[in-house]
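User: structure tokens for this one?
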Amino acid sequence: MVEVRLRSRWGAIAAFAVVGAATQLVWLNFAGVTTVAAERYDVSENAIGWLAQVFPLLYVVLAIPAGLILDKWFRSGLIAGAVLTALGALLRLGGDDYGWLLAGQIVASVAQPLVLNAVTGITGRYLAEKDRPTGIAAGTASIFAGMVIAFLLSAVFADSNELPTMLWLTAIFSVLAAAYLIVALRKPGEHKVERRGPSRGALQTAWGDPLIRRLCVLAIFPFGVFVAMTTFSQALLEPAGVSAGTASTILLINVVAGVIGSAVVPILVVRRHAESALLVASLSVTALACVALALWPGVAMGFIAITVIGFLLLPALPIVLELVERRTGEAEGTAAGLIWMAGNLGGLLVAIAVGVLVDHPLAAFLVMAGVALIAVPGARALRRPIAELDAPK
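Assistant:
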């Protein structure tokens, strides 16, 4: 009788989606204009890369604390993440120099774990069980949509004197997103009670699950390739004659393909219990695409290879998070935090390696290919534990 009157509150999911998009917009504002930004602010391309890399760096440190906070104070933690994202975006407007940019990025990067770790929690609290796979797919697709906005803005405002306009638009979007979330979460979700609180038990429950541990190890590799690709592809393709505007367009199409893939592929894969097969295929094709970029860099290959990577690699995230939501109970925020922490650790390590090789595109693309290939056996080995998860109880 209780379940009959409970309904899915999609307005809360939509508000989360907008805030999730804002976090990615702030993160990747400079990914498509690395060279231009380096010239404007009189720093190296690697320094501009650190405006993005500070996000995975702090995510590794804060993922577990953020997950524990969400497990106890879900609404307050998520709202705090939205407000900090807006504050970071506003802080970057404090002055036209690199110091203000870095300060704003640090504040926003503190917020990101509080927002992204909440993707499974908000679907569990505000959606009926039958709607949760769709909600997770929509939530993660919206995160990628924020990347689309970031690359669209960097493509439109690709000149040095237009960068302040890009930052102003980002700040306005982030403030409006935070306000929308505060209104949408004025009432708690009805589908799950608030968590009992952060404790070592939540972490032990999540990390004690062998499937969660395997997913954490696996997440390092696709995350690593994607973060490195989005951070440095513009600089890596520039020697082949690819302009900043064209590189931003390539990244834009890459993430549009990823949004489409994330909204469609996970739902089909989950229905057919083909999670392991999809992960193996996406990693293998990503490796081949990186090799193609290493050997034949240029505009055409950039469009083809990076678009394919987006369509196949980005859906891996909602697939993994859907497995986490099905597997965990009260420790879902902490478990999601572990996945995000592992992925961002991979992003940080691979991006640092590629940043060192930014003046050697052939080697940089081959490193990304190798990282993707390393993960293929691990993805194949997931077939049995996923089958056990899908088996009737």
